[in-house]
Amino acid sequence: MISANLEKALNEQIAREMHSANLYLSMAFYFDKEGFDGFSTWMKKQSAEEMDHAYQMAGFLIKRGGTAQVSPINGVKLTWDSPLNAFEDAYHHECAVSKSIDNLLDLAIAEGDKATQDFFWQFVREQVEEEATASSIVDRIRKMGETAIFNLDQQYGSRV
Ligand code: MG
User: How many angstroms does the Cα of residue 142 sit away from the middle of ligand 1?
Assistant: First the structure.
């Protein structure tokens, strides 16, 4: 049986995962509007993955005798300045999620709840991938941006 304290913390994490799902869906809609179909598809998959995290956590909580809640979810941003700006936000968001997972694990360790520790280690590993993926997309967009500027520079430099 999970403690009331951990049950509360897990429900807060479920809400964060659902908030992540909404944030990435909002980014997908932004990309759709701007004509970036590929980024939109990517973000819709990312959103579905976050909902799956919420389902997994709810399933675990229920197995441990707790009650999984659907909490009110805060609103999310509707627009971004550029794809780079959206992916930078996604990266910072994932870093914040990693911190909250770490805090949950710390709580499970403090309580000596081995099953919750075991369950959350997979999310510690998952967050390593999430941060690395978002960071690598940010890097790629930045480099492509530089390439575009480089091409423009060459183009205008060849003026006769
Ligand atoms: Mg997640």
Answer: 25
In angstroms, rounded to a whole number, what is the distance separating the alpha carbons of residues 75 and 52?
A: 20
Q: Give dist(CA 121, CA 104) in Å, integer.
A: 10
**147 has a pLDDT exceeding 90:** no
Surrounding residues of ion ligand 1, Cβ less than 5 A: 50, 53
* pLDDT tens sequence across 32-84: 999 888 899 999 999 999 999 999 999 999 999 999 999 999 899 999 999 89
8 is written with which tokens? 């509360």
Helix boundaries (H) for the chain: 4-34, 37-63, 83-110, 114-157
DSSP 82: S
Kindly give the distance from the C-alpha atom of residue 20 to the centroid of ligand 1, in angstroms, as a whole number: 7
Nearest-CA neighbor of 72 among 14, 2, 25, 8?
A: 14
Cα 48 to ligand 1 centroid, rounded to whole Å: 10
